[in-house]
Amino acid sequence: MLNWLPENISTYGAEIDSLFYVIYYITLVTFILVAAAMVIFLIKYRHREGHQAKYTHGHTGLEITWTAITTIVMLGFGLMSAPLWSKIKQDVPPYDIQVQVTGKQFNWEVLYPGPDETFGTEDDVQLENMVHVPVNKVVRVILTSKDVIHSFFVPVLRLKQDMLPGRKIDAWFEATKPGRYEIPCAELCGFGHSGMLGYLIVHTDEDYQAWVNETWPEHVSEMKAELDQGSES
Length: 233
Fold this sequence. Notes:
CATH class of the largest domain: Mainly Beta
């Protein structure tokens, strides 16, 4: 099997890749058969002196057969992919952290709910073009847009979701490898579209906790105070 897709660090990425390769190889076989038929017809029905071309009205049985085969294959793809898309798009599992990403011309606004895990409160923190998450944790991503249609695309996660103005769309992922990965916009959104790029930072548990402590130092102080009170009592 060819291995030319981007690196996969998603728990559901392998299933998407398998489905993609099934489609790819069926398409490849179809292309080879069609190309071979074209070459055969070009040779067999090439121009020859004394040979008069004849017009054909087609073959009804052959056309029905070809249409039926194509329909069956497409329905098969739909039935085969339905459980996977349901798992990814509809059934968001219990999540460990959540973050809201808002697309606008031409960057990503990333909003964290803070230690209280509630959006719209004083401890919310907004970043630009940087999404920090821990490794091996389920992350809920709330996607929306301020202006036009954008598309949140993280190739290594096999995650791609359009973002619509006025709507909030849930997505989720679980990254399995620490690192820094690109988040381009995959929907033409204006003259600055090509420069709309963010980054997903997947931390180890220790590094993520250190980032949380640095981002919400007052929360760390409150926790220490609570621990001190508990030890004194």
